[in-house]
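Ticket #4471: structure export looks truncated?
Reporter: QA, pipeline team
Priority: medium

Steps to reproduce: submit the single chain below to the structure queue and open the exported record.
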Amino acid sequence: MTKLKELKELSIEQLEFRIDEINKTLFEIRNELAINHKVEKPHLLKTLKKEKAQIKTIMHLMAKK
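Actual output as written to the record:
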């Protein structure tokens, strides 16, 4: 997981790219869960969703400025 301070230093394009990466990873994890009914690293679901929310919040704050 990326630190909040590091996320704030990134540009909007980099943040959008990071969200795309997170979405792909979440899709793969959910797909694995649906097929195998178990996931190798279940904690990643929570961690990635939290990071995605933080990025969206930062992007919203940047847009207000």
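Status: closed, not a bug. The export was complete when the record was re-opened. Leaving a note from the reviewer for reference: The first helix runs from residue 4 to 8.
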